Amino acid sequence: MRTVPVGVSARHIHLSPEDLVLLFGECAALTEFKPLSQPGQYAANETVEVIGPKGSFPKVRILGPVRRRTQLEVSRTDAFALGVNPPVRESGNIAGSAGIVIKGPAGEVKIEEGVIVAARHIHFHTNDAERYGITDKQRLSVRLHGERGLVLDQVIARVSPDYALDMHIDTDEANAAGAKTGDQAEIIG
Amino acid sequence: MRTVPVGVSARHIHLSPEDLVLLFGECAALTEFKPLSQPGQYAANETVEVIGPKGSFPKVRILGPVRRRTQLEVSRTDAFALGVNPPVRESGNIAGSAGIVIKGPAGEVKIEEGVIVAARHIHFHTNDAERYGITDKQRLSVRLHGERGLVLDQVIARVSPDYALDMHIDTDEANAAGAKTGDQAEIIG
């Protein structure tokens, strides 16, 4: 059986170095709150407010380290609450995605694109991918068990020697499945 | 192909006649805002506030007509926001479910049970069930198509001459699938 641990991603944001300075001031640096499943990635102590045309979230966790471009990842439920209409995208693919206002202690930034609903995906270490017979960018079907059991199609495989085995789904997907971080899912096709 | 239209249920409440009076006053009556897919059921113009230990929703739509017992149906996302922990249940099966405070223009009611996350289900008219070879209470697997395509297991068949063919899922399930009311789903097992 090809099992994979589940990691549920709540709404979060990645900041560019430029936006970090605009939001938190000169010489600002992210500080680690706790490590994430992927090596080198962490949840920061710092949070920002995100403000849409219809609603806002006062404390959105920043994930570090900084990235080349600012990216806000929300669930579809969050998107309705904010009043924005982000596309379902792979991380990093933000061209033409939705915009938002971001507010930090030192200032405000309006991004024209960068808001996405993250496409569900599995991080495979190269060794795990080989063991499971899976190639980078392959689309998989994955079963989550339980009273709200379901099979997620269109799960994107991402293979790298820098990754640790983990399936990332958002809170809508987790809640629809009655799943939580640490559950075991099963790749069925 | 055994197709079925999708109906997405947002959070809503059913009231008992007693609670309707407590919340809206003597001689209160629900008035129809728009009909629902099931014959005789309607969304009312009237709304209530529901207040949990952690959060509240100011305007929760009442569905009519009144029922024997008051029942609040929320998504798991809503439940986290309210700070309650309702079980996944079939409508009407509320023994031991979660409680909540309900506020109307004429008063407040605290229910000890009645808050549930609705178990996904399909209403079949007896003729549809016969045509599709499906029996009451059968568990089905249903495919939703699209970029967030998935297969919902544990979908409960409910068969009655009083029903119209419609699959009811909540907003978490709809958002996880990228589905909306009026989409066509496919019963695959």
From TrEMBL, chains A, B:
| Required cofactor names | Zn(2+)
What residue range is the signal peptide? none
The metabolic or biological pathway listed in the UniProt record of this protein is:
Polyol metabolism; 1,2-propanediol degradation
What InterPro entries does this protein map onto? PTAC (IPR008300)
Q: What class of enzyme is it?
A: transferase
Q: Which NCBIfam families match?
A: PRK15070.1
Specify whether Ribosomal protein is a keyword of the entry.
no
Reaction it catalyzes: propanoyl-CoA + phosphate = propanoyl phosphate + CoA
What is this protein's name?
Phosphate propanoyltransferase
Q: Is this entry keyworded Transferase?
A: yes
**What keywords sit in the KW lines?**
Acyltransferase, Metal-binding, Transferase, Zinc
EC numbers listed for it are 2.3.1.222
The highest taxon in the source lineage is Bacteria
- Family classification: Belongs to the PduL family.
State what this protein does: Involved in 1,2-propanediol (1,2-PD) degradation by catalyzing the conversion of propanoyl-CoA to propanoyl-phosphate.
